[in-house]
Amino acid sequence: MRALDVDYMLGLVSVILGYVPLTIGMALAAMVCALLLACLMAVERVMRVPVLDQFVQLFISFFRGTPLLVQLFLFYYGLPQILPVLSGINGVTAAIIGLTLHFSAYMAESIRAAILGVDRSQWEAAQAVGMTQAQSMRRIVLPQAARVAAPTLVNYFIDMIKSTSLAFTLGVTEMMGATQKEAAGSFLYFEAFLVVAVLYWAIVETLSFLQKQLERYLNKAITR
Amino acid sequence: MISIRGLTKRYGANTVLDGIDLDISAGERVAIIGPSGTGKSTLLRCLNYLDRPDSGVIRIGDLTVDAATASSAQILALRRRTAFVFQNYALFANKTARGNITEALITVQRKPRAEAEARANEILREIGLSDKSASYPAALSGGQQQRIGIGRAMALGAALMLLDEPTSALDPEWVGEVLDLMRQVAERRQTMLIVTHEMQFAREIADRIIFMDGGRIVEEGTPAQIFDTPKDIRTANFLRRVR
Ligand SMILES: Nc1ncnc2c1ncn2[C@@H]1O[C@H](COP(=O)(O)OP(=O)(O)OP(=O)(O)O)[C@@H](O)[C@H]1O
Ligand SMILES: [Mg+2]
Fold first, then answer.
1. Which of A195, B73, B231, B241 is deepest in the core (most CB within 10 A)?
2. Ligand 1 center to residue B155 CA distance, Å?
3. Any idea where the domains of chain A sit in the sequence?
4. Rounded Cα distance, B69 and B183, in Å
5. Does the distance separating the beta carbons of B86 and A222 come in below 8 Å?
6. pLDDT (tens digit, 9 = 90+) per residue, B100-144?
């Protein structure tokens, strides 16, 4: 066994740190879009809008039932062949869209479960004061469901950050892509991938810490 | 003036409400008593379509809702003329005490926030919970929660207040304060239809007592008539059992 090239690793840290904003940016953009889409699908699943419901079920089933990598390749390399308007799409956009669709399917299911978990009496009280279905959902039920779903949703965000590394297969130079390039130049694969692993780990640990704070805050807010 | 004609509700083969006819005049306080499983809650819940009746007509003022043709707009209108107090309080868990009162004023009645909050503060004073205005339901006692539940209903200014056993879920120590508040509401001649097992209370505040059994109104009359000289044997038997 040879000794680790620590100087190389330290140098690499500052190089890869430069790509952290792109990684977090992609994850954040995909998270915001996925949350919106997931909320819409979850509400639809609870309301069971005819026809639309079948479509949403199919969507969720497909995006949960196939690997993210396959979905990304399908969008980035496959779709432009049959839909030429997509041929100009860049890797970052394709990755954000792919992550959005993939994770929205999972998040829709947890939000739906959280909505169904809200006590029936909350619905009834909202209806009884004269709120419409939409008002009851938006003002009373969804906020309570969000509180329940929040920790799970943060877990998906953490998962999403790690999944952005797949964007490198679409030619995006994010943390993983940058590491790959560096390693190919130096041949110090172990050092290079160890550095990027530790950086992902640090980001995730930071988020886990924030997640605990969030949970504590949410618990406190409603029992004050 | 409120009139109910032929209100019927079935669950499968079980006819829970069997053609209820009932008139309530403005300012009248009506108490419903009767054995368990008789359809008292179902009657209240059908009156604001929390449960949809199978047939029957409800009239409140100039609004007529026929179960055969009720549209969602009519159902909303009906709910906006009634207020409901639940046995289990059913306060909005994500809203503070004050938020529970302002919510419908803002979302449903479209009042400006400042006006809704002023109204809520007034109500909170009346129900003696000004100091709890920023508390969430989970931090309140059962008695306090039910007082907020009644306050929420009071704020709506509804033509008819429906109360389904407002003290039945309470620990005995909280029953008194909730009964006191309901007395206060009744004294203002708020039109109300209350289901209760508190016979003494019903006698005290009600203009009229209705005895229900098997999904029907068996007997109705003044508290003195029903409690002292019931005509129907079922009423007499029921009263003997609960005393
Ligand atoms: N959602 C439902 N599905 C089926 N049956 C129901 C439903 N709700 C009520 N029932 C039945 O309707 C009947 C009347 O119930 P309801 O709750 O109106 O009685 P109640 O007079 O309020 O009784 P209690 O004094 O115990 O509250 C009961 O036999 C009950 O089992
Ligand atoms: Mg009942």
1. A195
2. 29
3. 6-223
4. 37
5. no
6. 999 999 999 999 999 999 999 999 999 999 999 999 999 999 999
From B7, B9, B14, mutation site for ligand 1 pocket: most ligand atoms within 8 A of C-beta: B14
Q: Which residue has the tokens 């909730």?
A: B178
Q: Is B219 exposed, middle or buried (0-12, 13-18, 19+ CB in 10 A)?
A: buried
The token duo for B42 is 């179902």
Judging contacts by C-beta atoms under 8 Å, the chain B residues touching residue A217 are none
Tens of pLDDT, residues B40-78: 999 999 999 999 999 999 999 999 999 999 999 999 999
Question: Over the range A141-172, which residues count as b (16 or more CB within 10 Å of their CB) and which as e?
Answer: bbbbbbbbbbebbbebbbbbbebbbbbbbbeb
The pTM score is 0.87
Crossing angle for the helix pair A91-117 and A142-163, to the nearest 10 degrees: 150
Which ipTM did the prediction report? Answer: 0.94
Q: Cα separation of B81 and B86, whole Å?
A: 16
Chain B CB contacts of A144 below 8 Å: 93-94
Task: Tally C-beta pairs within 8 A across A and B.
Answer: 68
Rg (CA), chain B: 18
Question: Cβ-count burial of B15 within 10 angstroms (0-12 exposed, 13-18 middle, 19+ buried)?
Answer: middle
